[in-house]
Write a structure and sequence with these properties.
The complex is a heterodimer of chains A (298) and B (245). By secondary structure, chain A is of the alpha/beta class. Chain A contains twelve helices and twelve strands. Chain A has a seven-stranded mixed beta sheet, sandwiched between helices. A five-stranded mixed beta sheet of chain A has the order 7-9-8-11-12, with helices on both faces. The chains are: A alpha/beta (298), B alpha/beta (245).
């Protein structure tokens, strides 16, 4: 089955053909996937070498010239290594770009900590004007990418691709989508957390809402679904990243919140993404343990 | 926040001799030390003789772009922008106040004619590389991108990324002017700044940063693309000024 990265490259290739103002900036990573585009559009598909600061700044300059840049590399190098460039050369300049990462959280489990950035969404959330999009399935990537590029007149986006995926794709929406309904809690499952969440709560009386757009957070949607006073946030990145957004959405009501995600401790283990999910309690068994305890069912 | 009022200064275009007076409106000092004015002559020559940009062409895609990367000590920049009627002189005395668009580091969203917001060092040149690419990708071969950096600003590694890349990519529409007042603690060695650019494929020249004719000649050579660079690649002008006191 085609992965998110391949679908991203294919969709970007189409966008380059459709719109002469679309540009791509790379720092070696995935350059092989864009080889044809580099040859076809050498003036606007740019591989700057292993230079992530330059990659982001060049995108800022392209945007100031009127182009619509897509910037892509591995998550820690895109978000963390060049963070001041993201803050200043995109955010502060009011220059818009679509940043597309691969290597979400512990996708690179065998690669170790240097290739992991579960802090990515928290960091991107700190830059004004960025939407954050977290697809849960490769088939959701084209719609999210196209909407992000289409929104470049009004703001930037961070599109977070992962090798972890849900069993099925869902229609792309900027709103929370109800996957199932129940009375004891609302579980917000972000991106690839949907399948493990659905498996975990199979026989529990809870609503599950699916989010692919986490910034801006669908506060109105959560407010309309929430009726029990109990909310569970299941995010595939740093635990609690969206906790303040849930709190803000529910300011008018008493509520309890359980935030599931990657903890702030460093797991010094290799293995597979599934190993890391289990270690962080983000596999179906772990999620079930946390949710049943939270709801007083154990 | 004050919005841009009627531009211009009663139709009186200022000349070079009046720049210190405009700076005094901001600083309150009658005399300005070398560090406050290290960029003054370069800025004046660019805006007076080189840059194809005016208060009436700020949205013209074909305008030249000037990026003040070294955003520190912008009094000279604001003085030149006022002299050339990009901003009203009346803005100057309020410099740095809560109601002024003019801060100690410039903000492009607040000041007409300011192409980038700067302050943190090492951002202007990499942005300029993207801007130069973006102009060429749209078939805009006429306009040039000029980036002003300081010699100590080049300490920032982000510049090294841009210098090597832009030289190898052979960007023909990019000029860097490095104002060299020898303020980098570790310096640039025997060959100076220009050696580091030249080895990356830039054409490079060093002139007095106080000599208007020499500066203009250096910029005109670069903008004509008729330098000794066989590649027609990016151009460096080192503008040497007296050291910091």
């Amino acid at each position: 089955m085609t992965d998110m990265r391949t679908v991203f490259a294919e969709t970007t290739s189409a966008l380059l053909t459709e719109d002469p103002l679309t540009a791509v900036v790379l720092a070696e990573i995935s350059a092989d996937m864009f080889a044809k585009d580099l040859a076809r559009h050498p003036d606007r598909v740019l591989n700057v070498g292993i230079r992530e600061q330059l990659m982001v700044s060049v995108a800022g300059g392209l945007a100031l010239a009127g182009m619509r840049p897509i910037v892509h590399t591995y998550a820690p190098f895109l978000v963390e290594r060049a963070y001041e460039q993201v803050k200043l050369d995109l955010g502060h300049q009011d220059a818009h770009a679509v940043l597309v990462s691969i290597g979400a959280s512990y996708d690179g489990a065998t690669a170790g900590r240097t290739h992991q950035a579960p802090e990515d969404v928290a960091l991107m959330d700190s830059v004004p004007g960025f939407s954050v999009l977290v697809p849960g399935h490769p088939d959701e990537v084209p719609g999210l990418l196209r909407s992000a590029v289409g929104a470049l007149g009004s703001g930037s986006s961070y599109l977070r691709l992962s090798s972890v995926r849900n069993a099925q794709a869902r229609p792309v929406s900027s709103r929370l989508q109800v996957a199932r309904t129940g009375r004891r809690a609302v579980v917000v499952a972000v991106g690839p957390m949907l399948s493990p969440v659905l498996e975990a709560v199979g026989d529990l009386d809870v609503t599950v809402a699916y989010a692919t757009t986490v910034r801006p957070f669908d506060a109105a949607g959560l407010l309309s679904l929430e009726a029990s006073g109990a909310v569970v946030l299941a995010e595939p990145y740093l635990a609690g990243t969206s906790a303040f957004a849930v709190s803000a959405a529910l300011t008018s009501r008493p509520h309890r919140l359980l935030s599931l995600g990657v903890p702030r401790t460093e797991l010094r283990r290799y293995g597979t993404p599934a190993d890391h999910a289990a270690a962080h309690g983000l596999d179906p068994a772990g999620i079930r343990r946390s949710v049943t305890r939270f709801l007083g069912l154990t | 926040m004050r919005v841009a009022g009627p531009r211009g200064n009663l139709g009186v275009m200022r000349n070079y001799a009046e720049l210190p007076g405009l700076m005094t409106l901001m600083t309150g000092d009658e005399k300005h030390g070398p560090s406050a004015t290290s960029t003054l002559d370069v800025l004046w020559v660019l805006y007076d003789q080189i840059l194809r940009v005016s208060p009436g062409s700020l949205d013209d895609p074909g305008r030249d772009r000037f990026l003040l990367s070294k955003g520190h000590g912008p009094a000279a920049y604001y003085a030149v922008l006022a002299a050339k009627e990009f901003i009203p002189e009346a803005w100057l005395p309020d410099f740095g106040s809560v109601s002024s668009p003019l801060g100690y580091h410039p903000d492009r969203s607040l000041v007409p004619g300011v192409e980038i917001s700067s302050g943190s060092l090492g951002h202007g040149l990499p942005i300029g590389v993207g801007l130069a690419h973006g102009l060429l990708a749209q078939g805009l071969a006429g306009p040039r991108v000029y980036v002003l950096v300081g010699d100590a600003e080049l300490d920032e590694g982000s510049n090294s990324e841009a210098i090597v890349y832009a030289g190898a990519a052979g960007l023909p529409n990019l000029t860097v002017v490095a104002v060299d007042n020898r303020s980098s603690s570790w310096g640039w060695g025997p060959g100076g700044i220009e050696a580091h650019f030249a080895v990356a494929g830039w054409s490079a020249t060093r002139v007095s940063g106080r000599d208007h004719d020499a500066l203009a000649s250096a910029f005109l050579v670069t903008s004509a693309g008729a330098s000794d660079s066989a590649s027609g690649g990016p151009q460096l002008v080192v503008a040497e000024v007296e050291g910091k006191e």
